[in-house]
Write a structure and sequence with these properties.
22 strands, 3 domains, 9-stranded mixed beta sheet, alpha+beta, FAD/NAD(P)-binding domain, disordered N terminus, 7-stranded mixed beta sheet, single chain, 20 helices
Length: 576
């Protein structure tokens, strides 16, 4: 059954990005009754999967529940005149092949590289702060304020972490070994699964004798890892933020080291480990990927909610049913939704093994995150680095600004508050000001501020929910913390958008508010993501595939899950 909807068709202009933006809001089209592939959800991974499949000649349609594409990688004008990267807010992890294969620069992607990239002001030490950037000698001078020993150790630490990231990279760009096929499949499937061992072998070759150290980073608390390198708390706490960000874990939680490694595996413009702001906000990245897909013929529909996956009598996925009753047939279905939504809401439960359903329902998706988007009429003026007389941005304004992060004990206490069902009294705050490099995001003289904060439990002690009073009380506490570092901040606020874990779940489909779809813990990685025996993007229902952050290699704006899933799907389609 065909139905009208907001459809994004082939870009026809010489300027793909501008054509895309126009088509995004104005084009109307007819929904076809059948496609080769259907993608559920226009998050960045779903868009990447669609772009690759369409380039391979697989006629693909994407259905998005919201009025805007991008999933968590969106730009929204929540406050008039202020454009926010409402959920995800930084770019680094996107796999370099995706930039090239999808020609993202041609389709309008522009990135502002940040250098310096990290600023940690000291609250109790007046004008003291830790500023880190691309210049190693300057980094050492900064660290020497706190420890000469740490200043000497820092280059060796960076080299060590980069070597681990280099070893892990082959694993990001390939499907995990299909263990089910290896043990239970036909001879042909077993032989095919052996090829997936090559990335593991390459990683092992790179690590060599360092394998025990790598294992420790994967399994140990990040405090144990950092204590072996450094003695100064400001440096250790600043580095530890990347080990706990987005995770309901503390620096003392075993395995927190992997999350740190996950966040140092990226790069921008050929610079390893670099992070940056997307010109126009994170939605511009999603626009560029979608422009690449539609330029080759893909169709992307907004405001089209998938109600269920259709399964044939033979047990194979054969399309989807939309919320308005429209039926769309396809050879394969890729779900960019979370594993929980895909298997517990969109599929008939009788089509799935009982043990599989139980495993999915038990996935750890706890989230500590509250994202607050703030419109301000001037730059924050930090006591540790006062503003310029003219109010123009200074180098530290482009950084990830870490507040309440001078000591790992502060991070631990913030975590313990949430474990007791309370929002952190002194939350860990990562403050970013993308308009410091991209003034198009705010009116002249004004700025957009992104506050990525934790820890906030999904449900408060005693089963209480986050009502307006509780939400505003927490935001006020965050603002009070910022005020202590940057007097005058509260008076500069023009408006705010508060997204607690339940809001992140409701608006963006993040289960429990978890930015990774499910926790990036060792029991939910690689062979076991989302669950053991189902980590190769294929699902118990043939013809259905996961392509989102709940699949290998996990969360972050990486695109690897979408790219890898598309390659697996294309291989399966060729053999049908």
């Amino acid at each position: 059954m065909a139905a009208s909807g907001r459809v994004l068709g082939r870009a026809m202009s010489a300027s793909p990005c501008s054509a895309w933006r126009q088509a995004r809001w104005t084009a109307q089209g007819r929904l076809k009754p059948e496609y080769d592939a259907v993608v559920i959800g226009a998050g960045h991974n779903g868009l990447v999967a669609a772009a690759y499949l369409q380039r391979l000649g697989v006629n693909t349609a994407v259905f998005e529940r919201r009025h805007v594409i991008g999933g968590a990688a969106v730009t929204e004008e929540i406050i008039p005149g202020f454009k926010f990267s409402r959920a995800s807010y930084l770019l680094s992890l996107l796999r370099p092949q995706i930039y090239t294969d999808l020609e993202l620069k041609k389709h309008g992607l522009r990135v502002h590289l940040r250098n310096p990239y990290s600023f940690t002001p000291m609250l109790k030490e007046g004008t003291k702060s830790l500023l880190l950037g691309m210049d190693m000698a300057e980094n050492q001078k900064q660290i020497a304020q706190f420890s000469q020993k740490d200043a000497q150790a820092f280059p060796k630490y960076e080299a060590f972490m980069n070597s681990l990231a280099l070893a892990a990279e082959p694993l990001l760009d390939a499907a995990p070994v299909d263990t089910e096929a290896f043990w239970q499949g036909s001879l042909l499937r077993r032989l095919r699964s052996l090829s997936a061992l090559m990335p593991l072998l390459r990683a092992g070759r790179i690590l060599g004798a360092r394998l025990p150290q790598y294992y420790q980073v994967l399994t140990a608390p990040i405090t144990k890892v950092l204590d072996q390198w450094f003695e100064s708390e400001p440096l250790k706490a600043t580095l530890a933020t990347d080990a706990v960000i987005g995770a309901m874990t503390s620096p003392h939680t075993p395995g927190s080291g992997y999350v740190l490694l996950h966040h140092v595996m990226g790069g921008l413009e050929g610079t390893r480990g670099a992070w940056g702001y997307v010109q126009g906000g994170m939605g511009a990245l999603s626009d560029a990927i979608a422009s690449s897909a539609t330029a080759h013929g893909a169709s992307i529909f907004t405001e089209k909610t998938v109600a269920k996956v259709q399964v044939s009598r033979g047990g194979r996925a054969q399309g989807v049913v939309l919320q308005d009753g429209s039926e769309v047939r396809s050879k394969v279905v890729l779900s960019n939704a979370s594993p929980q939504v895909t298997f517990l809401q969109l599929l008939p439960q009788e089509r799935l093994p009982e043990e599989f359903v139980e495993r999915i329902s038990r996935l750890d998706c706890r989230s500590p995150v509250t994202k607050i988007n703030v419109a301000v009429d001037r730059l924050p003026d930090f006591s540790a680095a006062p503003n310029a007389p003219g109010g123009q941005p200074l180098p530290h304004h482009q950084c990830s600004i870490h507040l309440n992060c001078e000591d790992t004990h502060l991070l631990q206490q913030a975590f313990e508050d949430a474990m007791d069902g309370r929002p952190s009294h002194k939350p860990m705050i990562e403050l970013c000001i993308p308009s410091s490099l991209d003034p198009s995001l705010a009116p002249p003289g004004c700025h957009v501020v992104s506050l990525f904060t934790q820890y906030t439990p999904y449900t408060l002690a005693g089963g209480r929910v986050w009502d307006e009073q509780e939400r505003n009380a927490y935001a006020d506490q965050v603002f009070a913390c910022i005020e202590a570092y940057a007097p005058g901040f509260q008076a500069s606020v023009l408006g705010r958008d508060i997204l607690m874990p339940p809001d992140l779940e409701r608006i963006f489909g993040l289960p429990g508010g978890n930015i990774f779809h499910c926790a990036m813990t060792l029991d939910q990685l690689y062979f076991a993501r989302p669950v053991p025996l189902h980590s190769s993007y294929r699902c118990p229902v043939p013809g259905l595939y996961l392509c989102g952050s709940g699949a290998h290699p996990g969360g972050g704006v990486m695109g690897a899950a979408g790219r890898n899933a598309a390659r697996v799907v294309f291989g399966d389609l060729k053999s049908m």
